[in-house]
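Budget justification aside, the reviewers requested a transparent look at the raw inputs and outputs of the sequence design task funded under Objective 1. We therefore reproduce one unedited record. The lines immediately below are the structure tokens for a 604-residue chain.
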């Protein structure tokens, strides 16, 4: 530690506003001191109140209060430098050589004043967040004559023996062994440690007994018989446990990575289960719906036949009754005429014939058969429903078997949303359209008319089959588009090879370069394979999605509304292919709705 003259200097008693010795010093909440008049004038008329040194902002103007302790120190300083003049260097100052403790002519303070200041200066309360500097090296020797021992009498531990001069003797070497020393003047190193809230000493000791970090005075007062070590020693001991902790964390990481893989595997299995359940559900409900539809059709047919039979029976019975009624009315009229006759001989001869009832059938037990014959249909349906219920119970207990994927009439494919990511903008090529086809201005829709248009017979144009192809060639990658087909009774959709025959009669088969799906007579769907493949769709599609994977040689069709796969062609493409459209003939207005290429909207 340097001489006591370096403890305080002139600058420590100067106001940073007027640059003069403090007059009625006041201290702000941020810890800076100013003359009361200076800081009051500085804040006068301002809307924002800040510290002139650190710019700390206060919500409202603080009320300056005189710092009594600092004022006493300032007064002592004024007396020391020459008579209480408020101006710096005011008269009567001692010569530099008479001021004890100065080094190299630097203005300082005598030792007696230094001791008096230390007695009057209380230790300022420090927050836990504040820290003080500590010496970097351990105390290796503690001679009584060291400057540190002579300048820090108040920092001796409680209970240490007094020196012959009346001051507390420094603690023995063993008391400082393994600890760091707190100095008043500043640190011997730039490292900072938290300070004790009670003693304002650097916290450099660890108490193993209580498991807390303490300062040297805390150890003397409250932890005398406890097992204590320096914080450095405790840290070195703790570092040995790092390897075990790292291994523990590594094991925890490994377990969690395994759990991630397990969850991913579960998610994959869930996807497969969804596919299996979807395929099985489609199969099961398709069978049920088909059975119900067949039963309904059979029921309607039986009731219609029963109605017709009952109507025929009723008509025949009514006809016979009407003939008998006509005969009875004739005889009744003859009897009435006979009653008015005066020919007695004629009356006697005719009456026996007229009075006898004509031959007639006993109609008392006759009735129209009201049995519609539906009981047999309902009993058959009940057996089917009972079988369906049993199958449902089995599925509820065991789930669908893996074979459901293969047996489903509508095979499950990846969700429509996935292939919609490959959507492309498809337009129609007017140069290929049959003369009866009418295309929209945006080349997005086509319908068939009754009249031929006058168009050039270029090689690309179809001249016999009412169809048109798209302008966008497909030579690689994946492509997807959607076509609105609602309200039509007939249509063809798919793709066609660039080199297809466009003149005369066309054989629309894959070997001839055509891969497409057809609708005929509202409900007959077929794939133009070899031979043609009919398919029954329980849900009639209103929008068809076409997906092409050129490299895999696949052309797939989807029911966009139901989000179901319909069919996939597997082939090899040796040249460019184009989207293919045929609205078919309009059938006298029954099929005049257009095919419309619609924007692809991603479904969830």
């Amino acid at each position: 530690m340097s001489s006591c003259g370096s403890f305080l200097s002139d600058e420590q008693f100067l106001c940073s506003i007027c640059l003069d010795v403090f007059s009625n010093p006041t201290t702000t909440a941020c810890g800076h001191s100013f003359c009361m008049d200076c800081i009051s004038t500085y804040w006068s008329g301002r809307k924002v109140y800040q510290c002139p040194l650190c710019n700390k902002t206060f919500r409202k103007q603080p009320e300056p209060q005189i710092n009594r302790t600092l004022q006493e120190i300032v007064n002592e300083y004024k007396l020391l430098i020459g008579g209480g003049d408020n101006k710096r260097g005011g008269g009567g100052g001692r010569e530099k050589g008479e001021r004890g403790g100065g080094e190299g002519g630097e203005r300082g303070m005598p030792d007696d004043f230094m001791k008096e200041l230390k007695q009057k200066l209380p230790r300022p309360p420090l927050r836990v967040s504040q820290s003080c500097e500590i010496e970097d090296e351990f105390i290796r020797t503690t001679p009584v004559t060291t400057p540190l021992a002579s300048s820090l009498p108040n920092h001796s531990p409680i209970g240490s023996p007094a020196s012959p001069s009346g001051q507390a003797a420094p603690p023995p070497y063993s008391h400082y062994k393994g600890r760091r020393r707190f100095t008043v003047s500043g640190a011997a190193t730039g490292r900072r440690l938290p300070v004790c809230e009670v003693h304002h000493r650097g916290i450099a000791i660890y108490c193993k007994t209580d498991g807390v970090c303490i300062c040297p005075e805390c150890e003397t007062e409250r932890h005398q018989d406890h097992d204590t070590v320096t914080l450095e020693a405790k840290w070195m001991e703790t570092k040995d446990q790092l390897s075990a902790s790292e291994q523990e964390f590594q094991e925890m990481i490994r377990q969690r990575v395994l759990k991630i893989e397990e969850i991913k595997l579960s998610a994959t299995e869930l996807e497969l289960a969804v596919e299996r359940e979807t395929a099985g559900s489609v199969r099961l409900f398709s069978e049920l719906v088909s059975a119900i539809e067949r039963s309904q059709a059979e029921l309607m047919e039986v009731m219609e036949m029963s109605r017709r039979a009952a109507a025929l029976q009723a008509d025949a019975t009514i006809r016979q009754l009407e003939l008998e009624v006509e005969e009875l009315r004739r005889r009744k009229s003859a009897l009435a005429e006979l009653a008015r006759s005066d020919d007695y001989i004629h009356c006697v001869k005719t009456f026996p014939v007229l009075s006898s009832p004509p031959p007639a059938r006993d109609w008392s037990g006759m009735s129209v058969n009201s049995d519609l014959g539906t009981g047999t249909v309902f009993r058959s349906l009940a057996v089917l429903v009972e079988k369906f219920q049993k199958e449902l119970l089995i599925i509820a207990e065991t789930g669908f078997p893996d074979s459901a994927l293969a047996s489903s009439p509508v095979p499950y494919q990846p969700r429509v949303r996935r292939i919609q990511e490959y959507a492309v903008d498809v337009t129609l090529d007017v140069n290929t359209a049959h003369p009866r086809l009418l295309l929209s201005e945006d080349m997005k829709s086509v319908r068939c008319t009754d009249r031929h248009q006058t168009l050039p017979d270029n090689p690309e144009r179809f001249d016999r089959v009412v169809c048109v192809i798209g302008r966008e060639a497909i030579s690689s990658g994946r492509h997807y588009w959607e076509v609105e087909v609602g309200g039509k009774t007939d249509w063809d959709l798919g793709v066609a090879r660039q080199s297809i025959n466009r003149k005369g009669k066309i054989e629309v088969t894959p070997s001839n370069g055509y891969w497409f799906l057809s609708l005929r007579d509202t409900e007959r769907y077929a794939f133009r394979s070899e031979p043609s493949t009919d398919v029954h769709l329980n849900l009639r599609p209103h929008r068809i999605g076409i997906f092409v994977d050129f490299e895999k040689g696949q052309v797939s069709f989807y029911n966009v509304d139901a989000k179901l796969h319909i069919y996939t062609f597997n082939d090899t493409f040796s040249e460019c292919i184009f989207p293919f459209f045929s609205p078919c003939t309009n059938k006298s207005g029954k099929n005049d709705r257009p095919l419309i290429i619609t924007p692809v909207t991603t479904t969830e």
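Confidence is low (pLDDT under 50) at residues 1-6, 83-108, 122-190, 404-413. The two ends are 78 Å apart (CA to CA). Computational costs for records of this kind are itemized in the attached budget.
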